Amino acid sequence: MSKEWHTASAPGKFVILGEHSVVYGKPAVVLATDRRITCSVRRSKRNTLNGEPIEFSKQPHFRYLTRNLRHAVDFVTRSDIPAGAGLGSSAALSAAVALALSTMAGNDPAERELVEEAYNAELAAQGSGSPMDASACVHGNGIGVNIPGCEDRKLWKFSRGGRSWCVSDIDVPDMTFVIGNTGIRAPTGPQVDKVRRFAKRSNFATEMIEEIGNITLSGYDALRKNDVETLGRMMLMDHKLLSILGVSCKELNKLVNASMPYSYGAKLTGSGGGGCMVALTDEPEKVASVIENRGGTAYIVSAGAQGARVEDGESQSPLFDVSSYE
Ligand code: PMV
Predict the structure, then answer these.
(1) Ligand 1 touching residue 93 (CB < 6 A)
(2) What is the pLDDT of residues 216-234, one digit of tens each?
(3) Is the pTM for the entire model greater than 0.85?
(4) Nearest ligand 1 atom, CA 20
(5) In terms of Cα–Cα distance, which of 75, 80, 124, 63 is closest to 104?
(6) Cβ–Cβ under 8 Å, residues 86 and 273
(7) At a CB cut-off of 8 Å and minimum separation 6, what does 89 contact?
């Protein structure tokens, strides 16, 4: 490793309960995954990303994160988090880049500062949203958002546009989750906008959002008690409500339905419209196999990974196309 490179990584995440409704200040429960994005950075004569000149107009995360730099940089990124798949690729990228840049500047940022930087980078790219993903990808482990009674493990609070999000550390449950990727790329911004438009014109949508909040609290209670049956039921109910909100699709429904005979519950995870679903199961191999048989890609997840961290070593060539994270 050349000494001039500074490297950091951050994990992806999956949402057990509460995506979309969290944008409206409702609760959510999220776990970090063992899939990570790594970013190396060094001073340079011109800005490059993986050997190519950066087109900042097409790279809002990088544009935002380099806004205060007085010199050019080379970035090299490596990712095993598929982009636009609901696994927090955009937040993990933002967190890893922010930490690598901060390390290069000789700083050792607090988690709260990194979350703020990553959240703002995401807002620059997708326009609106909650600090849920940025919090999960920076902190790692597991996080709860707006969960009453979690104040003693509070990490930080963000407020924006009349909403606020109190983020706490939570215990990672000893449960097995399998993620199924439909392979359909679905950026977050349009899905968030879709729900916003629906909620604006319909009380029914607002009630669905409220109900997802209630389900999330019941599910979190079940998670704490290790009650997989109830948690699974809440996940499936959440999936149905998200489908009514219009953010599922037939491919996601297919993978959810195929997993159910071997799962306590399953649902889409992340912004939907494609991307991934997650199943809670005691039979991960069987769930993985039905997902693969239906044309999906299955990952048996190890939950509760470490958050953003400084790495020793320059990153290798990327596994996924990192030129257009949404
Ligand atoms: O699809 P992802 O990984 O970007 O997750 C989006 C989660 C939402 O709740 C839909 C949006 C948000 O900002 O919280």
Answers:
(1) no
(2) 999 999 999 999 999 999 9
(3) yes
(4) 9
(5) 75
(6) no
(7) 12, 37, 79, 81, 82, 83, 325
